[in-house]
């Protein structure tokens, strides 16, 4: 499809979903719940902070491997056609012979932040994973042929007076890639969402009223929001029984961010808190009043790679470490900005130059017993001078402090939050802590504003 035609479809679809202009919301803010905090139903009180950090780091590595697989798969061959909607029979993870798939290590859960919302009429509260690397939002629905166990009852669309199935010849259905959709026996739209390897969810595309309990006390309600009603879930990673699905805030036309675009000025932002914070993060839509200073805000364009269409890609021109600048020598989108992994992953060639500059700036011996998956750790940080770190994106120099670049572990050990990858580079969420990160889908840019997110 010609890019202009696709863009026209996207904006016309968003217009179809929008409410009357007189009802346009100025903006609203909701809580982002860190999965590792006592506020989270996923919190494990028996784990130490070091164990929690290591667990999050391993999920970060798994995310990188998933991205590597998806990029190779999308660019080399189409995805398999969705199975029959009457009796789904997708491949099991044990039957796969692909070396790329077997490299994906099953890890507990997926995502580092959770969010609550309500669906349907009457309202049913759901707890879902917040993900800027997904487009279609989905929940598990009843009846379900194969679903992962969840504590809350499955969502039953027949009990909602505002639920409607989406037809397979509708505009919303045609926005799903052709090799990821099918037409059901009753002409309902069937989708297939793949997360890498054999990790897939299949369901019917539907629309219903979505409600967010704003932190200001004023609820934000959006009728006829399109989402996936999953009746089959098969993952190589385990999703917690506390989570009921995923909320996608990617750049695609079916993401929540795109669907709310006309009512929220095509903008959303998040503010992620430090690991030790007792506060929740915040997710903001539209022009909800910002507490970030107007000075110090920098912006950079984002691009969309056809091989990774659900991700925002920035162009990283270089990284300054102290007095030395490491150049990437690349143009166009070369690094994903991602809300899920805590670690920043750099392509091997860039990482080698980067870590060489780090060792030169510190002028200390690296710890030989760096715990997996960390690559560079040092002891006794109080005796060291930390260099300045600046990530130079096109048009935006993002200055990171030591808390963005290092994680404190046991035995007076600190480890760098940057690791090498064999796939595409990723700007992880630890590097984004205490920034208000705003996505402007209309202007196609991402902005960074230094902020104390714990009081945001």
Number of helices: 8
At the fourth CATH level, what is the homologous superfamily of the largest domain? Answer: Acid Proteases
Give average pLDDT, whole number. 83
> Number of folding domains?
2
Q: What portion of residues belong to β-strands? A: 25-35%
Structural class: alpha+beta
* Shape annotation: globular
GO cellular component, one term: extracellular region
InterPro entries: Aspartic_peptidase_AS, Pepsin-like_plant, PEPTIDASE_A1, Peptidase_aspartic_dom_sf, Plant_Aspart_Prot_A1, TAXi_C, TAXi_N
Main location: secreted
Protein name: Peptidase A1 domain-containing protein
Give an overview in words.
There is one protein chain. The chain has helices spanning 3-17, 49-76, 99-102, 171-174, 256-259, 261-264, 348-362, 402-405, and strands at 27-34, 113-119, 124-131, 138-140, 164-165, 181-183, 189-194, 200-212, 220-234, 245-248, 267-271, 281-286, 298-301, 303-305, 308-314, 316-321, 324-327, 335-337, 344-347, 377-379, 389-393, 396-400, 406-409, 413-416, 418-421, 425-427, 435-440, 445-450. It folds into 2 domains: 27-286, Cathepsin D, subunit A, domain 1; 298-455, Beta Barrel (Cathepsin D, subunit A, domain 1). It is built from 8 helices and 28 strands. The strands form 5 sheets. The chain has a 6-stranded mixed β-barrel. It is of the alpha+beta class and 456 residues long. It is 17% helix and 33% strand.
Short description:
With 456 residues, the chain is an alpha+beta fold. The chain has two domains: 27-286, Acid Proteases (Cathepsin D, subunit A, domain 1, Beta Barrel), CATH 2.40.70.10; 298-455, Acid Proteases (Cathepsin D, subunit A, domain 1, Beta Barrel).
């Amino acid at each position: 499809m010609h890019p202009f035609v696709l863009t026209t479809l996207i904006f016309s679809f968003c217009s179809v979903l929008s409410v009357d202009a007189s009802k346009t919301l100025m903006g609203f803010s909701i809580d982002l719940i860190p999965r590792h905090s006592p506020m989270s139903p996923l919190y494990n009180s028996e784990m130490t902070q070091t164990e929690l950090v290591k667990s999050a780091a391993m999920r970060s590595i798994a995310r990188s491997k998933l991205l590597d697989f998806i990029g190779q798969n999308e660019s080399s061959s189409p995805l398999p056609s969705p199975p029959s909607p009457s009796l789904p029979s997708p491949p099991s993870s044990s039957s796969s012979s692909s070396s790329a798939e077997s490299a994906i290590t099953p890890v507990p859960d997926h995502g580092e932040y959770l969010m609550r919302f309500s669906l349907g009429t009457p309202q049913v509260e759901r707890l879902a994973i917040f993900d800027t690397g997904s487009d279609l939002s989905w929940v598990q629905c009843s009846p379900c042929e194969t679903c992962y166990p969840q504590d809350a009852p499955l969502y039953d669309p027949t009990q909602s007076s505002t639920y409607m199935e989406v037809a397979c010849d509708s505009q919303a259905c045609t926005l799903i890639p052709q090799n990821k959709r099918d037409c059901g026996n009753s002409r309902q739209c069937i989708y297939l969402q793949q997360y890498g390897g054999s990790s897939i969810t299949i369901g019917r595309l539907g629309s219903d009223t979505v409600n967010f309990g704003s932190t200001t006390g004023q609820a934000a309600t959006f009728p006829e929001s399109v989402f996936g009603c999953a009746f089959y879930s098969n993952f190589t990673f385990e999703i917690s029984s506390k989570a009921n699905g995923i909320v996608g805030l990617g750049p695609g036309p079916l993401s929540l961010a795109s669907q709310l675009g006309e009512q929220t000025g095509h903008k959303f932002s998040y503010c992620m808190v430090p690991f030790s914070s007792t506060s929740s993060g915040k997710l903001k839509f539209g022009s909800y009043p910002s507490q970030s200073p107007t000075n110090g805000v920098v912006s950079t364009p984002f691009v969309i790679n056809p091989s990774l269409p659900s991700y925002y890609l920035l162009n990283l021109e270089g990284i300054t470490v102290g007095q030395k600048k490491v150049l990437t020598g690349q143009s166009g989108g070369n690094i994903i900005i991602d809300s899920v992994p805590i670690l920043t992953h750099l392509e091997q060639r860039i990482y080698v130059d980067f870590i060489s500059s780090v060792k030169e700036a510190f002028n200390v011996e690296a710890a030989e017993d760096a715990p997996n998956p960390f690559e560079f750790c040092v002891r006794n940080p109080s005796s060291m001078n930390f260099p300045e770190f600046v990530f130079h994106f096109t048009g935006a120099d993002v200055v990171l402090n030591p808390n963005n670049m290092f994680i404190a572990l046991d035995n007076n050990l600190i480890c760098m939050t940057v690791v090498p990858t064999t796939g595409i580079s990723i700007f992880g969420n630890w590097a984004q802590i205490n920034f208000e990160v705003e996505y402007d889908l209309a202007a196609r840019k991402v902005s960074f504003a230094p902020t104390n997110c714990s009081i945001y």
